[in-house]
C-alpha cells in the first residue's frame, strides 16, 4: 500500500492506495505432488488464505504445498481468471524445517493467447522478479514494472546442495494496484533512440542498447529458456564503456533510475558517472563533444534498483552513463537492465509517495525539526538535488539524494519519494 503526498501550490492531500490479492482461492497447479504421511501437499494450499508456516499437523492436515523431491525443476502456478496489471507477489516460506529449499526462485507472469493449463506457459514469460538465495520467511517482491497477465508461476531448478530438494509454498499472494496514477512526472527515456560503446553477443543474442529503454525491468540478463537478452551488455574489458539515450528534445532532467543485473556480475556496474548534454548540433556524432553536465557520480557498486536525483535540474537532450575499466576475474563490461529518466512538468506541483520497498541512501545536509509532512515535502521540493524525505512521528525531517529498493523497510519512520 502506498500513501501519496500531493503538493498543488499550497494544497496538501494524503490518500491511500487500495490493493487486492487476486490469487486467493483461484485455481492452481504444480509440477508434481508429494504425499506426507498419506496427505497430499496440493497446489491449492498456497492460495487458500491460510498463512500457517509449518508444513503439517502429523496425520491430520497439511498447510503448505509440497512437490516430489529431487526433480530437475519445480513450479507452481495460479490462474487469476482474467488479465491484471500485476504489482507485487508475497510468498510465505516454511519455517518449521527446510526453509533453504525455497531458494533461487523466478516469478513469471504469462498472458497466453490460449488461456488453458496446457498452454499457459508456452509463450514467453515476463519476469516479475528473481530472488537469489534463500527466500525469507515472509517475502514481498514488487514486479519489475506492472506486468499484464493472467497466470503467475513460481519456478526453481533443482538445488544440488540441498538434501531432499523440492518446492514448498505455505501461501502466495498476488497483488494488483488499483490506485490511479497521480504522478506528474514522465519517464522521457522510454522507447527513445539509444547507443552504446560496443555490443556483446551471448549465443547469438545481442545485448543491444535499446534493452535499457524498452520498458522491460527484468533484472536477469539471459533468463530461461535462454533465447533472448533482457539487459544491455558491452564487450568485455574495454578501457571505457558508455551507454546513452537521445530524449528527442531538451528537458529539465530531475532524476535517473537504474536497474542493475541481479542474476550475476552486479559488481560490474560500479563507479558510474551520469552526464547530461545539450549539444549545439543534436546528432550522435556530436552529442558528447561539448561540455558535459554531471547529474550524479555513484562510487562503488550500484544497488539493484537505484534512484538518484541530479545535483540540480539540468537542461539537456542526451543522457549518458559512463564507467572506466575495472579489474574483475570474469571480465568487466557495462550492463544495464533498464534506465528511466524523469522530468518535472511544473516547478511548484508534484507528488510524493510513501515508499514501502525503498530506503534512502545518500543524505543531504538539510534537516528540520517539529514540522508536518506537508512542510517537509515542500522543503524537499525547494531543495536542489532532493529525491525524497524521511519524517518521524516527532516531526524530524531529513532530505535524501539517492535511494535503493529493499525487501523490508523500517516502518517506524516514513520515507517519501517523488513519483
UniProtKB/TrEMBL annotation:
Q: Which terms are listed as keywords in the entry? A: Calcium, Disulfide bond, Lectin, Metal-binding, Signal
Q: Where is the Fucolectin tachylectin-4 pentraxin-1 domain?
A: 19-182, 185-349
The secretion signal range is 1-17
InterPro entries membership: BG_Antigen-Binding_Lectin, FTP1, Galactose-bd-like_sf
Gene3D superfamilies in alphabetical order: Galactose-binding domain-like
Q: Which GO terms describe its molecular function?
A: fucose binding; metal ion binding
The source's superkingdom equals: Eukaryota
Q: Which GO terms describe its biological process?
A: regulation of cellular defense response; regulation of complement activation, lectin pathway
Quaternary structure, from the entry: Homotrimer.
Say which family it is in.
Answer: Belongs to the fucolectin family.
UniProt-recorded name of the protein: Fucolectin tachylectin-4 pentraxin-1 domain-containing protein
This protein's species is Mytilus galloprovincialis (Mediterranean mussel)
Amino acid at each position: 500500500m502506498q500513501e501519496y503526498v500531493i503538493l498543488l501550490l499550497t494544497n496538501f492531500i494524503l490518500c491511500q492506495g487500495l490493493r487486492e490479492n487476486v490469487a486467493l482461492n483461484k485455481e492452481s497447479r504444480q509440477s508434481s505432488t508429494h504425499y506426507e504421511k498419506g496427505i497430499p501437499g496440493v497446489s491449492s494450499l498456497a492460495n487458500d488464505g491460510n498463512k500457517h508456516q509449518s508444513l503439517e499437523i502429523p496425520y491430520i492436515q497439511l498447510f503448505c504445498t509440497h512437490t516430489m523431491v529431487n526433480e530437475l525443476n519445480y513450479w507452481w502456478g495460479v490462474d487469476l481468471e482474467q488479465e491484471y496489471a500485476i504489482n507485487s507477489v508475497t510468498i510465505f516460506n516454511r519455517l518449521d524445517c527446510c526453509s533453504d529449499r525455497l531458494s533461487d526462485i523466478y516469478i513469471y507472469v504469462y498472458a497466453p493467447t490460449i488461456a488453458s493449463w496446457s498452454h499457459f506457459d508456452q509463450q514467453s514469460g515476463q519476469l516479475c522478479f528473481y530472488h537469489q538465495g534463500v527466500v525469507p520467511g515472509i517475502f514481498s517482491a514488487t514486479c519489475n514494472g506492472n506486468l499484464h497477465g493472467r497466470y503467475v508461476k513460481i519456478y526453481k531448478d533443482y538445488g544440488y546442495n540441498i538434501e531432499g530438494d523440492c518446492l514448498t509454498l505455505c501461501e502466495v499472494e498476488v497483488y494488483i494496484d488499483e490506485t490511479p496514477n497521480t504522478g506528474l512526472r514522465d519517464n522521457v527515456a522510454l522507447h527513445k533512440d539509444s547507443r552504446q560503446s560496443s555490443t556483446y553477443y551471448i549465443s547469438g543474442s545481442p545485448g543491444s542498447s535499446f534493452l535499457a529503454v524498452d520498458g522491460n525491468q527484468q533484472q536477469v540478463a539471459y533468463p530461461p529458456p535462454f533465447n533472448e537478452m533482457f539487459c544491455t551488455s558491452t564487450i568485455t574489458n574495454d578501457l571505457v564503456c558508455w551507454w546513452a539515450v537521445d530524449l528527442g528534445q531538451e528537458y529539465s532532467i530531475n532524476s535517473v533510475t537504474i536497474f542493475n543485473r541481479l542474476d550475476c556480475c552486479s559488481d560490474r556496474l560500479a563507479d558510474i558517472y551520469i552526464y547530461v548534454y545539450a549539444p549545439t548540433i543534436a546528432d550522435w556524432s556530436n552529442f558528447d563533444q561539448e561540455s558535459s553536465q554531471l547529474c550524479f557520480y555513484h562510487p562503488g557498486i550500484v544497488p539493484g534498483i537505484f534512484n538518484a536525483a541530479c545535483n540540480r535540474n539540468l537542461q539537456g537532450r542526451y543522457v549518458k552513463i559512463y564507467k572506466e575499466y575495472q579489474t574483475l576475474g570474469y571480465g568487466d563490461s557495462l550492463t544495464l537492465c533498464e534506465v528511466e529518466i524523469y522530468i518535472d512538468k511544473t516547478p511548484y506541483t508534484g507528488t510524493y509517495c510513501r515508499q514501502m520497498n525503498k530506503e534512502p541512501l545518500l543524505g543531504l545536509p538539510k534537516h528540520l525539526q517539529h514540522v508536518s509532512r506537508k512542510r517537509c515535502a515542500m522543503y524537499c521540493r525547494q531543495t536542489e538535488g532532493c529525491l525524497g524525505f524521511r519524517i518521524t512521528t516527532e516531526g524530524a525531517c531529513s532530505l535524501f539524494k539517492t535511494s535503493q529498493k529493499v525487501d523490508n523497510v523500517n516502518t517506524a519512520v516514513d520515507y517519501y519519494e517523488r513519483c
